[in-house]
């Protein structure tokens, strides 16, 4: 493990403000988040970086060295960002991903580079470390992305999840099923860094459903579904595929949240974030929710709000 940009930002915020509370306010995060990041930084650095006392926190000799290097690194990073000609956005797989590509330049009024979040990095770390100016990412109840210093979130959509099964299989014509109907069947998840597998296992275990969850390549997932080998959780606006039936789940036991993450001290201004979020919300309602099965489900569940208030 190495010192990361988010560790360095916490160190400098503590040097500048002298207290955990002040550092949290400067970075726009909670005090526990600052404390946890500082503990991780001290483990990596190999010793205490600050002395805590009644009058706040003061850097140790090791802390002074780390702070000096941190200021140089972060200044260089800011210069590098300023030199870039495009805003860099990233996203995890979702039904809003293609809309982000289309809408980002229109909303932000600048050249935008949109790319898939790499498997080697957690989405919010891309923002915290300055590798992306914003990230559109999904997560799940009990498996949310952590609060990191300087990173803000706004929710774009909160949706049910459906399941994909073989259309010619025993469940293909059911329309809606209970989780219990899927007991003993292998489930599949694709290897996205959105904590989907752990969330699915929690839900199945909580419902008393014994099932194996396999991680499979995205290209192979629907092929295995069509062969009747696995059931696959899918976002409700996913496009239909030949030989595959999408079923709704009674009681809506699975749900997914899509959020836009950005750095409070980055190039995106609050007005930029609001414009981008509003366009993504419009795409959610006007495009994603037009999928026939999803539209029918929403009509039957008028209590469901897919877009929370800002």
Outline the fold blueprint.
Layout: H1 5-17, H2 20-27, H3 31-45, E1 50-53, E2 56-59, H4 61-83, E3 87-91, H5 97-108, E4 112-116, H6 123-128, E5 134-139, E6 151-160, E7 162-166, E8 176-177, E9 187-189, H7 196-206, E10 213-215, H8 218-226, E11 232-234, E12 244-249, E13 255-263, H9 270-286, H10 292-300
Parallel strand pairs: 3-4, 3-5, 8-12, 9-10
Antiparallel strand pairs: 1-2, 5-13, 6-13, 7-11, 7-12
Helix pairs in contact: 1-2, 1-3, 1-4, 2-3, 5-9
Tell me what the structure shows.
It comes from Actinomadura graeca. InterPro entries: LysR_HTH_N (IPR000847), LysR_subst-bd (IPR005119), WH-like_DNA-bd_sf (IPR036388), WH_DNA-bd_sf (IPR036390). Keywords: DNA-binding, Transcription, Transcription regulation. This protein has 310 residues and is of the alpha/beta class. It has three domains: 5-82, Arc Repressor Mutant, subunit A; 85-159 and 256-300, Periplasmic binding protein-like II (D-Maltodextrin-Binding Protein, domain 2, 3-Layer(aba) Sandwich); 167-233 and 241-248, no CATH class. 40% of the residues lie in helices and 21% in strands. The protein contains ten helices and 13 strands. β3, α5 and β4 (112-116) form a beta-alpha-beta unit. The chain is elongated, with a radius of gyration of 22 Å.
């Amino acid at each position: 493990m190495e010192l990361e940009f988010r560790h360095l930002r916490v160190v400098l915020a503590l040097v500048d403000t002298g207290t955990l509370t002040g550092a949290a306010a400067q970075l726009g995060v909670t005090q526990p988040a600052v404390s946890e990041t500082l503990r991780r930084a001290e483990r990596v650095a190999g010793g205490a970086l600050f002395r805590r006392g009644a009058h706040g926190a003061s850097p140790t000799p090791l802390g002074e060295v780390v702070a000096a290097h941190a200021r140089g690194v972060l200044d260089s990073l800011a210069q590098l960002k300023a030199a870039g000609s495009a805003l860099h956005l990233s996203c995890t797989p979702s039904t809003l991903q293609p809309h982000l590509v289309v809408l980002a330049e229109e909303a932000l009024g600048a050249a935008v580079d949109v790319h898939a979040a790499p498997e080697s990095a957690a989405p919010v770390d891309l923002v915290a470390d300055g590798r992306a100016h914003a990230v559109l990412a999904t997560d799940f109840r009990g498996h949310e992305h952590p609060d990191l210093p300087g990173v803000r979130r706004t929710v774009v959509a909160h949706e049910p999840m459906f399941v994909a099964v073989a259309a010619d299989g025993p469940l293909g014509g059911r329309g809606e099923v209970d989780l219990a109907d899927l007991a003993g069947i292998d489930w599949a998840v694709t290897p996205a860094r959105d904590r989907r597998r752990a969330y699915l296992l929690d839900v199945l275990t909580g419902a008393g459903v014994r099932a194996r969850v396999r991680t499979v390549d995205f290209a192979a997932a629907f092929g295995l579904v069509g062969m009747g080998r696995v059931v696959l959780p899918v976002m409700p606006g996913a496009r239909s595929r030949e030989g595959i039936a999408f079923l709704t789940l009674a009681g809506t036991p699975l749900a997914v949240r899509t959020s836009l993450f950005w750095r409070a001290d980055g190039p995106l201004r609050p007005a930029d974030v609001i414009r981008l979020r509003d366009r993504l919300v419009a795409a959610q309602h006007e495009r994603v929710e037009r999928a026939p099965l999803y539209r029918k489900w929403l009509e039957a569940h008028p209590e469901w709000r897919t877009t929370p208030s800002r």
